[in-house]
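> forwarded from #structure-qc
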């Protein structure tokens, strides 16, 4: 118990230091996610041996993972993005996924990449929407046409891999029953979404809002209960828990649209980004196998290949955007879309826990994701400034 308290204190201190580290220096703003993972690596058994993985901390990290996916679901506002950007984004992601499959197979045959096919393809086509939204908001791009297409690409880049990961769960029952369970879960989610829309326009919302000023915090508790319910149902229906967390986040997002839901969203983000999510990323850093990067002489080459593939798979489908993006927007759009650390960490955690991925392969994949979040948004911003575009 003493060890747990010490580890929790260290993780809390690292979570506190991460936003400070991300702001220094101002000329090179490191994403907080990267700072949290780096601090976890430094404090973990690979370097300073200050913190060790423990059952209680890992349980909190697991809650942080589900809350991260919940918050991602809340950020996906499909109505605000628009039909055309979403349609183009879905087509572009499908083409990217196909290209990723081909590329992974090719490099597997060459012996340069040793990752599970579907997990690798999902990681190569994910987009860090949770990282991009604050960046676009700070740059004043969130409501521009360019911003909407980046958001659409990011939303599909979150949803596509999430659906893929959820349906990768191997059912213990027949295919017919598994399909029936999946459809049942989707039906329950749609019913919950419909109720969320109805509550948003009913007098009940005012009563719920008043409880936000008391110790009851009923809307927050409802969202937590909804998340727990859909995660439980997802597991019972043979889906991965990430689908339950994502679905509950999207339902909560529907219920909290508009200025009336601002307080609720703020409180949920405070719970997630202020408490649980940093524990997940710091713990991921503690678990990070730093030695695996030097165990194989191919590891640096594999990281370079994965970074190139992140850009390549997002570049091939650009012809579907030819009527939507100006020539000057193309390269920044590719760099933003190829930014993908948070879900890559999620994918590697799922791969490790299921035995589909070794710690060495996970370390290479996470390293490529960390570099993408560090470098790609900065390069995109600098390029738009150089071209005289809004940045």
């Amino acid at each position: 118990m003493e060890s747990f308290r010490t580890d929790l204190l260290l993780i809390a201190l690292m979570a506190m230091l991460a936003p400070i580290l991300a702001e220094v220096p101002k000329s090179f703003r490191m994403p907080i996610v990267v700072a949290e993972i780096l601090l976890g690596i430094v404090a973990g058994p690979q370097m300073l041996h200050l913190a060790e993985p423990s059952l209680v901390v890992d349980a909190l990290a697991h809650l942080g993972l589900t809350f991260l996916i919940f918050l991602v679901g809340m950020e996906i506002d499909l109505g605000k993005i628009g039909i055309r950007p979403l349609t183009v984004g879905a087509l572009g992601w499908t083409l990217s996924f196909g290209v990723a499959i081909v590329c992974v197979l090719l490099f597997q045959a060459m012996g340069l990449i040793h990752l599970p096919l579907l997990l690798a393809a999902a990681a190569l086509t994910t987009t860090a929407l949770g990282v991009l939204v604050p960046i676009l908001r700070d740059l004043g791009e969130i409501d521009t046409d360019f911003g909407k297409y980046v958001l659409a690409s990011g939303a599909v880049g979150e949803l596509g891999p999430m659906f893929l990961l959820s349906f990768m769960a191997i059912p213990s029952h027949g295919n017919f029953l598994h399909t029936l369970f999946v459809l049942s879960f989707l039906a329950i989610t749609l019913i919950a979404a419909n109720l969320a829309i109805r509550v948003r326009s009913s007098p009940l919302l005012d009563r719920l809002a008043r409880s936000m000023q008391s110790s009851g915090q009923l809307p927050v508790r409802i969202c937590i209960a909804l998340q727990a319910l859909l995660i439980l149902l997802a597991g019972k229906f043979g889906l991965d828990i990430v689908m339950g967390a994502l679905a509950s986040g999207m339902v909560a997002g529907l219920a909290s649209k508009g200025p009336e839901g601002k307080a609720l969203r703020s409180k949920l983000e405070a719970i997630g980004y202020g408490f649980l999510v940093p524990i997940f990323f710091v713990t991921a850093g503690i678990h990070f196998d730093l030695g695996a990067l030097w165990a194989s002489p191919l590891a640096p080459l594999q990281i370079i290949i994965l970074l190139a593939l992140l850009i390549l798979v997002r570049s091939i489908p650009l012809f579907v955007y030819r009527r939507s993006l100006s020539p000057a927007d193309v390269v920044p759009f590719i760099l933003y879309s190829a930014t993908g650390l948070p879900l890559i960490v999620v994918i590697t955690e799922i791969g490790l826990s299921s035995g589909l991925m070794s710690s060495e392969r996970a370390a290479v994949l996470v390293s490529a994701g960390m570099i993408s979040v560090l470098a790609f948004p900065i390069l995109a911003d600098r390029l738009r400034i150089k071209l005289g575009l809004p940045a």
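QC bot note: The chain is about 75% helix and 0% strand. The two ends are 49 Å apart (CA to CA).
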